[in-house]
Amino acid sequence: MPFIRHADDSELSWSVTIESLSNLDNRRLTMSLKNQNVVITGGGSGIGAATARALVDAGANVVIAGRNLDKLQEICKYKPESMFAVSADVADRSSVDQLFAAAQEKLGSIDILINAAGINVPKRMMHNLDPADWDRMMDINATGTFNCMRLALSQMRERKAGTIINISSVAGIRAAALGGVGYNASKFAATALGISAGDEEKEHGIRITNIYPGEVDTPILDNRPSPVTDEHRARILQPEDVVATIMLVLQLPARARVPELTIIPTTQSFI
């Protein structure tokens, strides 16, 4: 059995050594992602694309969805035998119906859904936000998440198993001016959706997690009211940092559920 050896009390600093970890049966600690069938929205760039690559590396089969088919197909070149591109607009229910029909045809039943689609706009303050932009943000960031969850859950309930991860934003739990009123409101709506549905679906063996990243160096930064410098981009989270949290949640055993998880840059305030 592994044991922990503490440093002598006389030492100025404490250290902990964990030995014999190799004797642990890791199969009891993590769930394999091999042959898991995954749908990822917002898969054409940023967190969605990085997650797709990580999952196929772990042995999963992945359908990535988005509005730009050329981008999706380019990403699928990474492992074309395990990655499939489907053009879809999550705000359009008929398009989402077609997405899940295509995913089921290509992969079979869906085990994992990653909702990574999201938008923001440059003119985002109350005094200059276009009502059409408000509608579009709500349609994609909130309603789009609902549209995809609804169809994924219909498959997962039959098997009494499945995991959904909603890539929200720290703007969904902290309404700061940086995000803007429409983005903040849409992300708060998605937060409530994930928490409420997660509580309902736990009885069916389904796990739903909201992940709230702080600033991440993804294309959404291109829509900031003021340009983001290269120096700032280098200081904030990178997509692979968020992917690490996604993989952590997905590889937990089925008995463990993470309702909410926040990850922010070391330098970002959380007040």
TrEMBL record:
Pfam families: adh_short. Keywords: Oxidoreductase. InterPro entries: KR_dom, NAD(P)-bd_dom_sf, Sc_DH/Rdtase_CS, SDR_fam. The keyword Oxidoreductase applies. Residues 36-204 form the Ketoreductase domain. GO terms for molecular function: oxidoreductase activity, acting on the CH-OH group of donors, NAD or NADP as acceptor. Its EC number is 1.-.-.-. It is an enzyme of class 1 (oxidoreductase). CDD domains: SDR_c (cd05233). The keyword Endoplasmic reticulum does not apply. Belongs to the short-chain dehydrogenases/reductases (SDR) family. This is Putative oxidoreductase. It comes from Rubinisphaera italica.
